[in-house]
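Researcher: Quick sanity check before group meeting.
Model: Go ahead. Protein one:
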Amino acid sequence: MNTDTTHAMQILATRLADDAVIRAAVSDADALDAGMSWDGRNLGDGHAGVSMALFEATLSTGIDFDREAMAHLRSAVQLSNTAPFTSLGLFDGAAGLAAAMAERSIVDERLLPSARRFHQVVVTQLGAGTPPPGSGFADGSPHDVISGTAGQLLYLSAIPRAVCGPDDRAVASGLMDVLADLLQAGTSVTEAFTVDRRYFMPGSTYEALSTGDFVDLGTAHGVAGIALALASAAKRFGAQPVVIDQLRRMRDWLLDTAVPDPSGCLQWPRGLEVHGSVTMPSTGSVCAWCFGSSGPAVALLRIAELLDDESSASAMQASIESNVEAFISTPTTDSSLCHGAAGMLVLHSLTSGGTTVPSTRWAANDALLVSRILQSIDADAPFGIVSAGLDGRPLHDPTFLMGAAGTLATIAGRTRDAHPIWHRYFTGAPNE
């Protein structure tokens, strides 16, 4: 194991294991990074995500952070009992906490009964079709990966067999029908997914970027995430012909919106203007998981695999690699899962071991992504990370999606050459 990587994990894990450091960051509103949120219960921005990261660190470093990981998991559960979830989402709701419990229960069978019970509660609520009162969604999409239907499908597709229940297939089928109906209702994919600016969350990224209505192509809130979830669920559970037809329709639409680079690989804009305009900042994040160009390529890879289209699958692997290299060529040192190098490192695993990308090229790019993360490690920063996106200031974000927990979980999983369950929520790999 690379000593620099080990040292980086120790720095990140030690800070995240210190509940006082997290409490201080969360309570100090002036120190919080712009856009950071802390719910406490969630996978994306709460104790559940920190618990998952510390669990990964224990497996990878040989240093025991297990007690702290369990303390964070218990905190998430206790908070959910005190203030019940108002969302069933993967990253902002009950499904995410269920995912964290399931991940841990695979190696700690004492948690298996609790993980099964909580999973069944989530599945029952999903099957009822009536989310908890006050259920919200991010940036105008009740069907997205962060909060909505697509994330719920990814959760059901990835959940370990030891945890899943007898109702999973039927509930997943119902959710697939919801998305297929949404697509069928529109005369075009553009119409089905056009986001009206007035529905954006006040102060959100999209409110700031857009002067009118547009279609988000990304994974977190956009078309790529919907396509990824449908393809993953169809692979895991099977799907009705109407779902496959709509996946083909989305495939064709995504290919039509692509822009070939000089090598012939495909890249995508952040969004498509419908009315008004959308500003596309030239940063590394335009390649990243959340709203970047890699998302459509990953979704198209999963659709190609579902349809046994080896030629298209190879082309999408090449496009993913091209997007990785485009990210590396930018100066950004964002190391997060959502917008930065950690997310790119997870997606980069999709092009390993095949014949499309030469092994020497893949290894060189992988090393550059890891190096980008290690460059951001600073033992003097509150959570061990500084970011060029913050003008070199310390990162004050402990969370899984946007902060230190996701970075730690990513390098820990890579260090032990593992593909943890949580990777599937980003890559759409089903638990077959």
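Researcher: Fine. The other one?
Model: Protein two, sequence then structure:
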Amino acid sequence: MFVLAIDTSNTTLSLALVENNEILIEVVEATKNDHSKRLMPTIEALFKKVNRTPKELDLIAVAEGPGSYTGVRIGVTVAKTLAWTLNKPLVGVSSLEILARNIKEDAYIIPLFDARRQTVFAGVYEGASSNVVISDGHYELQGLLDNLSKSEKKMYFLGNDVARYWDLIESVLGDKVIKVEDENLNMPHASVLANLALEKTPVDNIHHFTPKYHRLPEAEMNWMLEQKNKGL
């Protein structure tokens, strides 16, 4: 199975060509949100480096969100276009699940992306089994941490946005939480996406496939902030 995997859901640009679980080539780069300029040229370069062509693909996999609106949309649009043009199956995979698979410990793995205004895109996964403990969603960070504080499990928080919230995370969870310092583990890897895609079912209709932003409606966010400010 020859797979092209695309993840542009955040500032990291990650692409991979994987065949039968072997990574032929992979790019994982921190960028300046210029995915629209870099994505197609980088894909073309990957195929040239391994002396293969897009027509040989068996599957296209893409990070479907959540994450940056623009980043997710760019990746999904390119993946859909390629899948339609080449008549290849398309699989979407959670951006959070891709990141969570970087750690396989007997602990809770919490991939986290900043969603502004003290809210985050996050999910909670069991590291050893990869089972979902709390589904991916858009959460008020304080509420999520309060929920997690009821568990005695060790917890790993993953993602480049964890640093800005670390003081709050540590103050609520104490010594149960482990800060992941390795930059490589805090970045998504398209090779992981490629392998995850093999566990999923391709989309039924490529044209109807849309990103999963997971963002709460603006009115609900405003209500939550009002309640917080009132001390409710």
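Researcher: One line on it for the slide.
Model: Residues 2-95+188-214 form a domain with the Nucleotidyltransferase; domain 5 fold (CATH 3.30.420.40).
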